[in-house]
# Entry
Amino acid sequence: MYVCNCNGVRGRDVDAAIAAGARSARDVLAMNAAEPCCGQCLPDIAQLIEEAQGAAAQEGVLVAAE
Ligand code: FES
# Structure
């Protein structure tokens, strides 16, 4: 499924960029050799980053509790 229709960036591309260290929607697009055009995807990508960071933080809490 495409997250950024302007650039053809898919959800798995976003996941890979986040895993590789992207910390902003612009980072995600840049890591996919893309630039914002209409900007409609930026909030969605930011949401995916927040979710990934929340999951990582949650995982850290679970590891620390062990
Ligand atoms: S949908 Fe990503 S820049 Fe337009």
